[in-house]
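FW: tagging you since you asked about this chain on Friday. Here's the raw sequence from the shared folder, copied in full. Didn't touch anything.
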Amino acid sequence: MKVKQKLWIENVEQFQLSKLNKYINKFEKLKDDGYIAANIKFEDRIWRVKIIGVELNLNFLNNIELMNASKELKISQDFIDSSIKSFLLDYIENTSQGNIKIKLNYLKSLINRELIERYALSVNVYDFTFFCKFNDFIGGICSEYIESITEYAVERDYKNKKIPSFVSVFKFDDVIEEFYRRNKNNIKVLLKWYPIIVWWKLTSVIPLRPSELINMDRLCIDEINGEYFIIVKRSLGKISGFKLVNSSNENECYYNDKINIDEKMYKFLKKYIKDMENYGGKYLFSKELYMSYNLIQPNLNKNKFTVANLTYLLNRFYDDFIQHKKGYVICNRYEKPFETLEEKEIERLSLYDSRHIAIINAIFLGYDIQTVQRLARHKVVNTTYGYFRHEHEYAKSFALSFSKKMLHKNDLKKIPNIKRSHNHGRLLASVVLGIDDVISVNRKDFKSCGGYCEYNTNKDILFCMKYLPNHVLCPKFIPYDEDVQIGQAEKKLENCIKVLCDIVKDRETIANFDEKMSIQRDAMLNNTYELAHLLAKKEK
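HL: got it, structure written out here
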């Protein structure tokens, strides 16, 4: 597949209506290349464009908006309309379908006072280059409005991904798994939500962007000599320094990437493909099936399931199933700290969250950093390392989720009430406390990690030995104060992850980096499971 050096077309001169033909010629070239529909004219209020194989409408200012803007800016309506369209031409072939609509909304907000507050809160400092460039292009007539937007602007740190609370992630995962388990043989029920099930199961394991997922071929799995593979799509547009030859054609936008998967994933996708055999189309998801459930006849993308369709289904799944059938209350993201979310409260995930979750999960499970980098298709390893900052919250949320699963599945023995018994395994005491004189150890003096053990068989420590050195995990262990124990476990986990992040930070100067990473990651997992057991005990 051809790629060429990325060359952004910069508007270095000020826009003039007398030179409009220059931009109309550019417009006609984009039509010839397939970016703009053949029947669209430059002066039309709505442009139908095609970016990365997806059709969308660009809605420019209507007559009333143009009239109001003309009065406000004291400049002609033709100038305002033509300058916005001319400026946007460069971006049609150099950005994604989502970004082009955002940029158009930003341009409209610059010349429409009523729109400023609506869009300004989503603006970050990196957008000001775009704003200032447009302002220069039209002769500085929007300077006052740019100053107004700076009052609302929010600086966004791209190094710190905005992701949902992991408590909500694990709750969502439980809902998906339960739904699929109960309905996997009920095809009528399953088909409606199949795209959401596939999206989650696949992209929370393999870091894929939504656009990459929907462009996958349906026949995407293979078995070779007992190994299982999946062929996913990767975006060429994410290769730094290169630009697609023609991004209006999806065949020019992606390349195939063959990845090992486990047997469980292979069987799941094999069943999905079989269940979909009555619905045509080469892509992973069927537009025909989507339309049959949503009773719509779209004007755009009649044969292509889009990211917008998948987003709509995800929101419907939250509203129709998670909220109305499962009884969850859906909270706004960051509305409250994840520790304070009630049992039946959950944040709404977006399609893009699963990619970040897959990366963090891979790190947590101990994949070496180069493997995670390759799976995520990060150009530089520093991008992958940036996800380590989320490991503490992820580990705590995992512990909380795991503790509830243990309680639900009754994996823990019933925790006994604190009571006064006369005997304790003295040999166990000597091992834990390092005391030679085991006879002198009295029950009331025995301490182990801030509590004592209720296991009463004298001279028998086999039951407890398997929990050492973390005797706190023993089902018979009674902490003096459960909240103190949980606090200590959380602090230990926090310190463990801090050390892990320090190792990552100093990776260039640390000898035996991989070995130390492995040891510290094992410690993180052990501390996480310890915290999970403590949380489960408290709930008992």
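FW: Residues 426-539 form one domain.
HL: agreed, and The first strand starts at residue 3 and ends at 5.
FW: great, closing this out.
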